[in-house]
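To whoever is on call:

I kicked off a structure prediction for a single chain this morning and the downstream step that reads the tokens threw a length-mismatch warning. I double-checked the sequence; it's 295 residues and nothing unusual in it as far as I can see. Pasting both halves so you can look.
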Amino acid sequence: MRSKLFVPGSRPELFPKALRSDADSLSYDLEDAVAEPRKAEARALLSAFLQSDAARAHDKTIIVRVNAMDTPHFAADVAAVVQQGVQLINLPKPESAQHVRDAAEQIAVAAQANGLDAAPGLLLNIETPKALRTAAELAGAHPSVVGLQVGLGDLFEPYGIHRRERAAIEQVLFAVRMAAAEAHVLAYDGAFSNISDTEGFRAEAQLAHRLGFQGKTCIHPSQVALANAVFQPTAAEIEEALKVVAASHEAQHSAVGAYVVDGKMIDKPFVLRAQAIVARAREQGLIPPSPSRAA
């Protein structure tokens, strides 16, 4: 999920168009993108689209960002959009582990009511000071949580923190990445609002990539190629990872715990990272699947 393209719930003409984009995933938004008087209309239009043949005949990860739990729209959103083909529900502004558990329960109820075999997972937005402070607790609150997503705009703007303050961005991304690691879920980078600033988007995506994030949100199709390029393993990274994985298999047979590959000492943490790179490269079709064993 290198890229996640934001699709406003207020723009139904974009619903099918987004399926033709190069984004790995699509995030249909019923929260900030929809004005209060149009919430019910947008919900109904999106629900109908999600049940269409076009929406169900695709290879993208479909995500829906619903309204927050403290709004009068959350329950109706969940009941309407927990449909076949929706893999993730993006929950904005969770403030406690109980919020997460309550959301997961309502999603499970909607899944059963709509005849699904399994409920969608939860992607939690970290966009308030409390959520940032308790991010690991939120991520570990329920088994359906698959990841944490950074929301820098909501986190910074109300408190006068400049959105381009690099030190603040680095601290937030590192804190969220560590919280995700503690809970064994993925970390996902949020949006970059200046569509014309391609270098700013690329720099922020590169920082997130170096910190181990899985991908970045794109608010415009022009950002998708940038995100895909940044979060796709390079040929050099794949080559090095394949060497490490091969060496690890050999070391297992000889009961060696640490060894050297191209002059670098390798032990378990390096092997885990190499295995993740190989798995991602295979998932993206950059190398063929292993015929005999998984890396």
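Update from on-call: the warning came from a stale cache, not from the record. Cleared it. Sanity check on the structure: The mean pLDDT is 91.
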